[in-house]
Design goal:
The chain has three helices and seven strands, in the order E-H-E-H-E-E-H-E-E-E. By secondary structure, the protein is of the alpha/beta class. It has a single domain (10-151), classed as Rossmann fold (3-Layer(aba) Sandwich). The protein has a seven-stranded mixed sheet with strand order 1-7-6-2-5-4-3, with helices on both faces. Helix 3 (91-106) links the parallel strand 4 and strand 5. Helix 1 crosses helix 2 (47-58). It binds adenosine-5'-triphosphate (ATP) and magnesium ion (MG). Residues 14, 16-17, 19-20, 41, 43-49, 68, 140-142 line the site of adenosine-5'-triphosphate (ATP).
Length: 164
């Protein structure tokens, strides 16, 4: 599990899709160049919705252009800070790319990197990754658990609302 060795997570309730968007915006407004976010969650959990919200929060030029990068490996979005949006649903493809120099490209200091299905390449994710685990709740909403790296970072998580 991606959470091995990581600090205790903070849990957030997301009753509907708008709440997922709000959490994404909240995160995007706080992320900085060089940050890496690893998204974990089943098919349809809300990972891409969360990235779209982050794109709004980051102030990207075209936040609604966010879509699933499954077959493109990494999609680059322009803005005040560039967003590199990757997907490890097919881990072998992304692993091959990352082994061929892609690690420096994806986790470059001047951009924010967000990886969907990041648990599938957890050994390649930076040690200082913020992990976000999204799960479907039986009533139809979602629950997200955010875990900062064990070594510290993302101090603003202390101000995370319990519900969005
Ligand atoms: N908190 C929520 N409550 C209910 N529905 C939600 C919530 N958050 C997102 N959704 C809905 O879940 C659906 C799937 O969202 P999304 O495509 O973002 O998931 P995903 O994890 O990226 O899926 P995939 O793994 O297939 O790419 C969308 O219809 C979205 O509106
Ligand atoms: Mg998706």
């Amino acid at each position: 599990m991606a959470a091995d060795g990581l600090a205790k997570g903070v849990e957030v309730t997301l009753p509907d899709a708008a709440a997922t968007d709000r959490l994404g915006r909240w995160l995007g407004a706080r992320l900085r160049a060089g940050d890496a976010v690893g998204l974990v969650g089943d098919l349809g959990a809300g990972k891409t919705s969360l990235v779209r919200g982050m794109a709004h929060g980051l102030g990207l030029d075209d936040p609604d252009a966010i879509s699933s990068p499954t077959y493109l490996l990494v999609i680059e979005h322009a803005g005040p800070v560039r967003l590199l949006h990757a997907d490890a649903y097919l881990p072998a493809k992304l692993q091959g790319f990352l082994a061929d120099g892609g690690l420096e490209y994806l986790f470059e200091p001047a951009a924010v990197a967000v990886v969907e299905w990041a648990d599938r390449i957890c050994n390649l994710m930076p040690a200082k990754t913020l992990w976000v685990d999204v799960a479907v709740v039986p009533n139809g909403g979602r629950r997200a658990v955010l875990r900062p790296p064990a070594g510290g970072g993302f101090p603003w998580l202390a101000n995370l609302p319990k519900m969005f």
